[in-house]
Request: fold
Amino acid sequence: MRTRAVALVVALFALALVGAGYVAARVIIGRYKLELFFRLDPTSAKRFVARNAELAPATGPRIVLFGDSRVEMWAPDPPARGAELVNRGLAGETTAQALLRLERDVIALEPDLAIVQYGINDLRAIGVYPERAQEITRACREQLFEIVDRLLAREIRVLVLTVFPTRDPSITSLPTWSSQIVPSIRAVNRALLERPPRPGLTVVDADALLSAGQTPWIRDELAADDVHLNQRGYEALNRALAPQITAALAERRAR
Reply:
């Protein structure tokens, strides 16, 4: 009897190892496929080139939303105030990738206003490369500045949002989380807010709007997961942005 029990335990243990190995292999393959996807098409040309070509010439004000998954998932849409709204958000994208497609997916569309939200994918990399925290933070800040500067140079008004706060990391996020991420988010946001004013530029403090009091975390009722907003979160954001969008479009028309 004891021999059979031992054999059963060994068999179950072996089965568990096989199952764990299968799951691990699927995760590794999935990550490798994602990495190859960005290598083969780093600016998602297959996704946006055709869409851009299908856009008719603007007959009124045009707003382009430009950002990562936090922009791609934006719903309901921000109040466009009679303007055409074009979403060019791309999940998983960093500021370095954004610069590669800025001309094609924003400037070439000749918008009156660009709403920009980037940074979290850059700064989350600190969880994997904590020794590069200062380098990653500096690159994120400088690349955000370059995005804004290139848009302004083409006489496109810019409404840039500071990096959204995250939620207190869940257990599944802990292996790739670092205590340096929140200070890095705040450092980039501070740099955006303290930059000297420029004509055509509005900086919106999304962190103050979405965070929970004195804590660095997004309010639970506004969060869909560790980094994304739910519908209530976007509705709160839309209410705050409505007067900013109206003012930006009015100033554009007055020029």
Summary: The mean pLDDT is 89. Residues 59-254 form a domain with the Rossmann fold fold (CATH 3.40.50.1110). The longest helix spans residues 2-40.
